[in-house]
Amino acid sequence: MASGVGLLLIWIMVDDLRRYRIRNRWVGCLILAFVLACGMADRFDLLVSHGFFATAGFAVLACLFSVGLMGGGDAKLLAAALLWTGPEGCLLYSILLLPCAIVYVLGARFAGWPARRKAQGLEIPFGPSIAVAWLAFMVLAVWLDGPVPLPRPNG
Fold it and tell me: Is 108 in contact with 115 (CB distance < 8 Å)?
């Protein structure tokens, strides 16, 4: 399951870099993968706690979108990431996301990475930062043997 999620995140990252969009169907696939992973691991408790957490996070992100501080696809992808990380892993994920975003902003500003220059400033695709941090989070979660209760089959 993790390899499929990883491949999907890479696809989302490439598509966002090329077209500045994150398709709803791919975010839906990530959400469905979480539900399936919880079912396969018999961890239905995570559906409730992580679901409430992601919903609350999405409400905040929707407000940021409504005032123009974040793209809609970025808000949905970040909410899906919050679903997977849950309240237990959001600090680790945030710590991973910050340097990813900083590196991308610096790359866009000084190295010609994909970005749109507008009168108000630089508009960058945030999906790649979200995806790279998410991939790093998944690797760390497996390597550290589950600092957060990710839905993984027992055994």
Answer: yes
In this structure, what token pair is assigned to residue 59? 């409400």
**CA 78, CA 73: separation in Å to the nearest integer?**
8
Q: Which amino acid is at 148?
A: V
Q: Look up the pTM and report it.
A: 0.91
What tokens appear for 81 in the block?
A: 């990431």
Q: What is the DSSP letter of 35?
A: H
Q: Which residues of the chain have pLDDT under 50?
A: 147, 155
Extract the runs of DSSP E, i.e. beta strands, from 9-126: 116-118, 121-123
pLDDT for res 147: 45
How many residues does this entry show for the chain? 155
- pLDDT tens figures, 127-147: 999 999 999 999 888 777 654
Residue 20 contacts residue 74 (beta carbons within 8 Å): no
* Cα 62 from Cα 122, distance rounded (Å): 21
